[in-house]
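Quick illustration, no need to memorize.
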Amino acid sequence: MAMASAQIVSNVFPTPERWTALIAFLFTVAAAVQGAFWVREFLISMVERKAASRADDANLTSAVGVVTVIINVVVWAFAGIILLDNLGVNVTALVAGLGIGGIAIGLAAQGIFSDLFAALAILLDQPFRRGDTIQVGGPQGVVGTVEHIGLKTTRLRAISGEAVVMSNANLLNQQINNFADYSHRRVVLLIEVIYQTDPELLARIPAELERMVNAVPDCRFDRAHLIQFATSALDYELVFIVERADLKSMFDARQAVMIAMVRRFAELGIDFAFPSQTSYLAGPDGRIVDPHPPTGGSAKQPTRARKTAATD
């Protein structure tokens, strides 16, 4: 404010040339420094406001510290260049040199910077947090609990016990399933019954499944339908909701439904199907041959198909 006042006075009233130049120089310095302070405080206040709602998060505190350092470096670098330019210094060569140097450093440390900014994205956007169980890489990917989120890597503890270390950039480039955000779990069961099942029993199966699901605590029936004529079975699809978020409760409920299903199907006389294949034996004339002809009978007689089966 003092330098702004001096600049105004020097412009309004006659002032010695030496004093005018000194006031202009000091005003330029003060304006550049004060502008840098304002921009810095504005950016840091935005970051701190973002972090205020999660002040107990140690990872977020680390991220705020890193972001603050980056803001300081960038703001004061720009302020220095602007200040030198206003003081009459030719900054073209300086900017060009910094640009070339920045490109060289960026290419040499591309992996480090990509992991650094990926870490900031993880810590600020929080697709997952420390302690969350996540799956990385889709259905066939790694499943583990997040133990540490660093500036270069993130460490998971796999369900088999080993530590899995992944670079942050590589981690964000893959599909991430976060199991910590569950409010309930959806279970889909494929049920296969044999083709010889009576049609009346086939029609009763959805209602029986609904009754079995609703009898299990914390389970809510969604739907059950005959969905296709498979190669060796009639396929039903059962879908129900477990109103608990943890994995153990889901598996307990799924087991209870499956055991109830086995018991009830046994009472109704409904048999589960297994992969099977029907083979026919024929003679040179194309007629089906009974592989076990009656004693003293002809070796070539029409017969019912012989059914062979194989189980997994």
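The first strand starts at residue 133 and ends at 136.
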